[in-house]
Design goal:
- This is Cdc23 domain-containing protein.
- It comes from Macrosiphum euphorbiae (potato aphid).
- Keywords: Cell cycle, Cell division, Mitosis, Repeat, TPR repeat, Ubl conjugation pathway.
- By secondary structure, the protein is mostly helical.
- Helices cover 69% and strands 0% of the residues.
- It has 36 helices and no strands.
- Helix 20 runs antiparallel to helix 21, helix 22 runs antiparallel to helix 23 and helix 25 packs parallel to helix 27.
- The C terminus is likely disordered.
Length: 696
């Protein structure tokens, strides 16, 4: 793993270059009031506080420093406009901010103008929603599309002039003749012309004549935009932007259009109306210009659908062979999202081992390690990691809702109450705090109050996947299947990779006696969490209900190594009891063949000895099961089958001796019980044999 990511890890060995880029990126995010990005970068800057600053501006040959401080305001008016607009923005008076920064060419003021207009629509959508489960779409779609068109024209397509588009289809001679006529018959724009509307400089007669000469197939070519052409143009401009950045020969107007923060805002708006492909292309452009903007990376992570798309994105982002250090954090973040936690842990451990020691004190990285252990169901390790984050920054309550989930699973009401009081004392109205309080009341079986807190969390942030999923869990406890289904589907609309929502939907359809629907959702949950035995057991039970015995046994065999209480062993034993000991010889042979295939599929990369060991435990389990039911003949027969598995010469002596010892103990207990014809207490050797069954 270290060899694969070695080009990235070299930056973590010497964090001087990282701090140099952070200085510029932090100023840009702070000046644009991007609070989450500023928080992330500031946390990293505090981690690197003992690293000396790197201010070698005159070193033009240094290929690692890509950013320069933006020039100061060109005039006093731009300076005053920016700070007045920012004051309104900080007060959340977004209409006033948008109005103040409307006529300006300064990049910071322009961003505040467009961001204020977007947030005004966003807040309107939140405040005007009467039903919590309504689709989270802009209320004034016309104003939303107008703002999006302005951003696309500014950042992607450039200015659209009718004469420019028409001249592409005209001969050069006709264009020169029209220019002569235009100079003779130019019209002036008087007070009756609405402001902001383009007025053509050609006489009306020439425009009508031009319109009548166009063919029917090209009608409305100028007024209508082709969405397919847009996507092609976005991709083409992304490549052109990268070439322009590498050449360094671009004009001032082009630099304004290549503002990475406006590109990010454009992508956010495109994502809201489900134009995800265009949003991905624009985000890649923004990241290539400013790779230290963490908000663009996070937004891009929500648009990655599968691992194939992630690999394609990594190739696009590495075309310049720069191997930016922020890209490695993005890859680890995506691995955690895709539940590939081992790879993510390897990346973070490589940063700790091969990088500078200061990164071990970075709360973000410690929190990511806690989330990775949470996903692996390593509950004790995850709780320790979360408590370490709390010690590093006592007022950092990010991701503490996941810690409350772990305490809920451990059924630790005292610790959960302490955590809820702790986060409530910091900020009672944070979405993480509301989720912690909801878990606390759920553990106390006060589901109505728990639903109330989860609803508050999704009202504050309608894109909180964890809150939607926990709300669905509570509705299941309250037997409200309809509301639970809607809650889970809202979570999947935000993040289709959330296995908890898929699993919750499967549970609901299982409760309402729709096994085929449950099978569909459990299959998706299993694909997202292939090593989670809960998904495998649920999927196996649905296959069993659908009489798909082969698939069911394969799922149970995969989950067998996580069996701690014999539940899965009992399910497999029932198949052996029903089909393996059937009086019909054809049924028996078919089951034995199917059983072997399922065993090899469910337990891959295992030797014959390991497979025989698993079969031995199943036979021993059945032997104890039938002995408890006083079916001594069947129990003796199964003990004989278990002993026959270890007659081959290639079996290992110690393992064969161990199984034979347990078989002898089983036969001895059967003989003792059969002789007394009563249920005797199990002997010590029998107890040892039972423990052997679950030591997989």
């Amino acid at each position: 793993m270290a060899n694969i990511y070695l080009p990235y890890l070299k930056f973590f060995k010497d964090p001087l270059l990282i701090k140099a880029e952070l200085i510029y990126a932090l100023q840009e995010s702070r000046d644009r009031c991007l609070h989450q990005s500023t928080k992330f970068l500031s946390e990293l800057m505090m981690t690197l506080k003992n690293i000396p600053p790197y201010f070698e501006f005159e070193n033009e040959n240094n290929e690692f420093i890509r950013f320069e401080l933006e020039p100061a305001f060109t005039n006093l008016e731009d300076y005053l406009v920016y700070f007045k607009a920012r004051a309104y923005y900080d007060l959340e008076d977004y209409p006033s901010c948008a109005h103040i920064a409307k006529h300006t060419n300064n990049s910071k003021s322009m961003f505040l103008h467009y961001m204020a207009r977007y947030l005004s629509m966003h807040n309107e959508c939140i405040y005007e929603r009467t039903n919590l489960f309504d689709s989270f779409k802009p209320i004034n779609m016309r104003a939303y599309m107008e703002l999006l068109d302005e951003l696309l024209i500014l950042n992607v397509y450039g200015s659209e002039d009718d004469s420019d588009e028409e001249s592409e289809d005209e001969p050069q001679q006709e264009a020169s003749d029209l220019d002569v006529v235009n100079r003779k018959h130019s019209i002036q724009e008087d007070d009756s012309t609405p402001k902001g509307r383009r007025c053509s400089r050609r006489p009306r007669s020439l425009r009508i004549e031009k319109a009548t000469t166009t063919t029917l197939g090209k009608k409305n070519k100028i007024t209508k935009r082709n969405n397919t052409a847009k996507k092609v143009k976005v991709t083409a401009l992304a490549t052109q932007s990268e070439n322009n950045m590498s050449s360094g020969d671009h004009k001032e107007t082009r630099i304004k259009r290549e503002d990475p923060y406006l590109l990010w805002l454009t992508a956010v708006m495109l994502k809201r109306i489900d134009r995800c492909d265009e949003a991905v292309d624009i985000l890649v452009r923004a990241i290539q210009i400013q790779p230290c903007y963490w908000g663009a990376w996070i937004e891009l992570s929500t648009l990655v659908k599968d691992l194939h798309m992630l690999d394609a994105l990594n190739l696009r982002l590495n075309e310049s062979k720069e191997h930016h250090w922020m890209h490695l954090l993005f890859i680890a973040h995506m691995y955690i999202d895709f539940q590939i936690t081992d790879r993510a842990l390897n990346i973070y451990n490589d940063i700790w081992k091969l990088g500078h020691t200061v990164f071990q004190d970075w709360p973000y990285m410690q929190a990511q390690l806690a989330i990775a252990h949470h996903n692996k169901r390593e509950i004790a390790t995850a709780i320790v990691s979360f408590k370490t984050v709390m010690e590093m920054d006592p007022f950092r309550i990010d991701n503490l809702d996941l810690l409350s989930n772990l305490m809920y699973v451990c059924t630790s009401p005292d610790e959960l109450v302490v955590l809820s009081k702790y986060v409530a004392s910091i900020d009672r109205y944070r979405q993480e705090t509301l989720c912690v309080l909801g878990n606390m009341y759920s553990l106390k079986c006060d589901h109505a109050k728990s639903v109330l807190y989860f609803k508050k969390a999704v009202r504050i942030n309608p894109f909180n996947v964890t809150a939607w999923t926990l709300l669905g869990h509570e509705y299941i406890e309250m037997k409200n299947s309809y509301a639970a289904i809607i809650s889970y589907r809202q979570a999947l609309k935000i993040n289709i990779r959330d296995y908890r929502a898929w699993y919750g939907l499967g549970q609901i359809y299982e409760l309402v006696k729709l096994p085929n629907y449950a099978l569909f959702y459990f299959t998706h949950a299993r694909d997202l969490r292939p090593r989670d035995y809960r998904m495998l057991v649920s999927l196996g039970e649905m296959f069993e209900r659908a009489d798909r015995i082969f698939e069911s046994m394969a799922c149970f065999y995969k989950a067998l190594f996580y069996d701690t209480d014999g539940t899965i062993m009992l399910k497999l034993a029932k198949f052996y009891d029903k089909y393996g000991d059937c009086s019909n010889e054809l049924t028996r042979e078919h089951f034995n063949m199917m059983n072997r295939r399922a065993l090899k599929i469910g337990i891959r990369n295992r030797t014959t000895i390991e497979l025989n060991l698993i079969l031995s435990k199943i036979y021993l389990y059945l032997g104890h099961y039938y002995m408890d039911l006083h079916y001594y003949d069947r129990a003796i027969s199964l003990a004989g089958k278990c002993r026959d598995l270890w007659k081959e010469p290639e079996t290992i002596a110690c393992q064969s001796l161990g199984v034979t010892e347990h078989v002898t103990a089983l036969l001895a207990e059967i003989e003792a019980r059969a002789g007394s014809d009563s249920s005797l207490a199990p002997t010590p050797s029998a107890i040892k044999a039972r423990r052997f069954l679950f030591a997989l």
